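Obj: model holo form, ligand = zinc ion.
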Amino acid sequence: MANTNITKIKSRWILDSRGNPTVETDVYCGDIWARAVVPSGASTGEAEALELRDGGKAFLGKGVMKAVQNVNDILAQKLQKFDVLDQEKIDAEMIAIDGSDNKGNLGANAILSVSLASARLAAKLSNKPLYQYIYEIAYKKTTERFLIPIPQSNVLNGGKHAGSNLSIQEFMILPVGAKNFSHAVQMVAETYQFLKKILTEKYGKSSINVGDEGGFAPNLQTTREALDIIIAAIENAGYTPGLDFVLGLDAAASEFHHNGLYNIDGKKLNEPELVEYFLQLVEEYPLKNIEDPFNEESFEAFAELTRKVRDVNIVVDDLTVTNVKRLQKAINIGAGNSLLLKVNQIGTLTEAISAAMLSMKNYYSVVVSHRSGETCDNFISDLAVGLCNGQTKIGAPCRSDRNSKYNQLLRIEEELNMKATFPKTFKDWRNFI
Ligand code: PGA
Ligand code: ZN
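Output (holo structure tokens):
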């Protein structure tokens, strides 16, 4: 292979799906180059790596010029001649240059843009699909077979992602009865359209406005009201709840937690009451996935719910923020059994892969996830296939920033053809890895 050293890095700001600036970076090796754009959260965890914003008047403080300059003025120079095929070294160097615990000097947005663009360029130079390159750096071996993830599709948005009274942030459908990914997308897309019909008939036109992740954002009052409508949509689409689809929630509970109490469905619940509340929902509905059911420091409450449910994904997101130290703490006390993996929570591909590996080694499943603020960059689709973790959370089948992820997975499945396995159960990654 010819020279694979980095020759140039160029960063700029562009707009994300919420109309806020975000960092886009191109990494070059001679004439060959690759690009990556970073996403951005709204219901962010306190312990996430720092997303550097400019403050001041421009863009209401959300400018990213400092992060862009940190790439163009610092990283572009320091990473000259680094071998783009050595992802770990590039990421370690950026972490060292930053020198802080949370990437607060250069900005996790600056660092991540270079990290992801470097991986894309390395895949390109190696003549490999990105998912295959990621598999090889994650597992340090090659493979012929890949696991395509089941999508967690957020069809109804609440919490910080919508202007409604629903406390729960995300109401998801998981097409566990699908025979492959394209079938899964068809099932999800059909159900989404039936949901639109039901909402319009029952609540009028304004109820089908969409939230940040492309799900509808009707002004419903309670969690059960939302779940009932989703069940009706699944049935109207000709599918069987519990068999073809199971349900998922992302409570993002830190957002409705105040002074030790949780404001939900017009009530104020303490932690033991909230544990009971979720257990009741699991009894009443085919609910198999609950993310961030408690405040982001309530490790014990997560552990309590995890002990009490059988066969339900208790997903840790704000609790662990893709950070191996926090994840190890969760593992030690049995808080959750599934990791939400968001690359920008930690800021480099290498560290995100480490979090995935630590999870799987400890029998936590991994859900590769988007953020509520996205672009049409679909790196995470390749990441989910490359990690063979079997699950991905990419919003509703609506809005180009979300469909970009679905569509990339459709292409990958087609390309892999017989080499693609679609999970039969949530836990299929255990047999696969
Ligand atoms: P965020 O939401 O990107 O706004 O944090 C997604 C999530 O909480 O999973
Ligand atoms: Zn979440």
